[in-house]
Specification:
The longest helix has 27 residues. The strands form four sheets. The protein has a 15-stranded parallel beta sheet with strand order 1-2-3-4-5-6-7-8-9-10-11-12-13-14-15, with no helix packed on it. The chain has three helices and 22 strands. It is mainly beta and 489 residues long. It starts with 9 loop residues before the first strand and ends in a 22-residue tail after the last strand.
Length: 489
């Protein structure tokens, strides 16, 4: 029966119930052509030495209870080794003999240090030693010149070795959840580094060395103590600075002209600078849980913006520029205690589309005119102005003994009334030929009101109709109005 295993090249075993506690020796001795061996979710603590032999290229042992890798140096052809989530406290001192190793994953163990000959793994391109107990990285790491991805996150590192800057092919560095306060001198020499994760460390500023990096696209420095952004990073496309101590959006940040996603949530930012419009490539902007109380019209310059989050800020309203941002598809203004109630209700009921409609209605109410009712004769006012007699323009005729003048225009004539004596002046010259408006009976008065109301309807940009203002109560003249004849001008 065991002879049937002789031709097996790939062996995979998954035991989620944790029944298996050991690998039978016969498995190892009879699989003569084995190239890939994988067991996961078992209670296996060690492997038979016979398994580690020439020809084995891939060894996947994640999520077991392995506490020893003794004899692994015999697997001289091994290129991929994954022992993540086991019970290892140390790596074998002979690990450096695996000269063909290209991928090594030891994440989720209790390893306190890397072996002294670790630098001999000069073909290694991926190294994941996150979630261990490392307090220092050996400087021999600089010998791993083929390394492209390095993950040392969730350890106890207080610094990165200076030799790290001599890794010419490094593209991705994950160093989150450590105790780092600065980067090594010469860090900018990592010309191929495109992604850098420094989340939850002890930085007080964005490291100035990053400004000269020519390939850096993604920077995550969430959960630090950052107060400053001293130098722009021109190549940056994604920036995450959530949960820091920024009191403003830094001037150098808005010079990162290629930025496509910026997240500055949970800071102490009070204002959005007008220069925010310089980020013309920005598509996502998160500013939630700050002290921002106003959004500038300059945000309309962000023509590519698709997602804007202002959640839990102090804003009261939104700029009209929001109406013209055609690419914007998601806007979050929830949990804003000072936000306009009508806008908040519109957003709650219909999202961004209904919010925009309500903004249009509010704009119409702010710019359209009111209806003036004088002695029970309501006329639609399309140009309403309150002015002193000294400021009446050339199209109006100034009344004697007038205090504040009210200019009203109707379908037939333009009239100027004074608050002091409600004097009727006369129509303007271009309307002089119009027939005077006769006294309205209740029937034709209603008709005139309907006509006025129809004239007072405006169509906004969102194709929403809104009535113009409210009708004012009739003005009750003190004496009987008297006609004042004025000389022709």
């Amino acid at each position: 029966m065991w002879n049937s295993l002789a031709s097996v090249q790939r062996f995979e075993l998954e035991d989620p119930e944790g029944i298996l506690t050991s690998i039978p020796k016969h498995y190892a001795t009879n699989m003569q052509h084995l190239e890939s061996f994988s067991i996961t979710w078992t209670r296996v603590k060690s492997l038979p030495v016979e398994l580690f032999r020439q020809g084995l290229k891939t060894l996947s042992l994640e999520r077991n209870q392995i506490n020893s890798l003794d004899g692994i140096e015999k697997a001289v052809d091994l290129s991929n080794l994954d022992v993540s989530s086991n019970l290892l406290k140390e790596l074998p001192k002979t690990l450096g003999q695996l000269q063909n190793l290209t991928t090594l994953k030891i994440s989720g163990n209790a390893v306190a240090e890397l072996p002294a000959n670790f630098g001999s793994l000069n073909r290694l391109s991926t190294l994941d030693c996150s979630c261990n107990r490392l307090s220092v990285l050996p400087n021999c790491i600089c010998n791993l010149t083929e390394l492209k991805s390095l993950d040392v996150g969730n350890n106890s590192l207080s610094e990165l070795p200076n030799g790290l800057v001599n890794l010419p092919n490094l593209e991705d560095l994950q160093a989150q959840v450590n105790q780092l306060e600065k980067l090594p001198n010469g860090f900018g020499q990592l010309t191929k580094l495109s992604s850098l994760n420094l989340r939850k460390n002890r930085f007080t500023e964005v490291p100035p060395q990053l400004s000269g990096m020519i390939s850096l696209h993604t920077l995550n420095m969430k959960d630090n103590n950052i107060r400053a952004f001293p130098s722009a990073i021109p190549t940056l496309k994604t920036l995450i600075l959530d949960s820091n101590n920024l009191e403003e959006i830094p001037e150098e940040l808005v010079k990162c002209s290629n930025l496509q996603m910026a997240s500055l949530q949970d800071n102490r930012i009070v204002t959005i600078p007008a220069e925010i419009g310089n980020l013309s490539s920005l598509r996502v902007l998160h500013l939630s849980r700050n002290q921002i109380d106003e959004v500038p019209e300059d945000i309309g310059a962000l023509g590519q913006l698709r997602h804007l989050s202002l959640r839990a800020t102090q804003i009261k309203t939104l700029p009209n520029a929001i109406l013209a941002m055609s690419e914007l598809v998601k806007l979050d203004v929830t949990e804003c205690p000072r936000f306009d109630q009508d806008l908040a209700l519109a957003y709650e009921n219909g999202g961004l589309a209904q919010l925009r409609e309500e903004m249009c209605r509010q704009n119409d109410r702010a710019t359209t005119t009111t209806t003036e009712t004088v002695q029970g004769n309501s006329e639609t006012t399309t140009d309403y102005q309150r002015r002193s007699p000294n400021t009446v323009d050339s199209s109006s005729t100034e009344a004697p003994n007038s205090g504040v003048a009210i200019v009203t225009k109707s379908k037939h004539k333009t009239m100027l009334w004074t608050e002091q004596d409600c004097n009727f002046i006369r129509p303007t010259e271009d309307e002089a030929d119009e027939p005077p408006q006769s006294h309205q009976t209740p029937e034709n008065k209603n008709s005139g009101d309907n006509e006025s109301r129809n004239e007072g309807v405006a169509i906004d940009d969102c194709s929403t109709r809104a009535k113009i203002g409210r009708e004012r109560p009739p003005i009750q003249p003190k004496p009987k109005p008297r006609k004042v004849d004025l000389p022709d001008t």
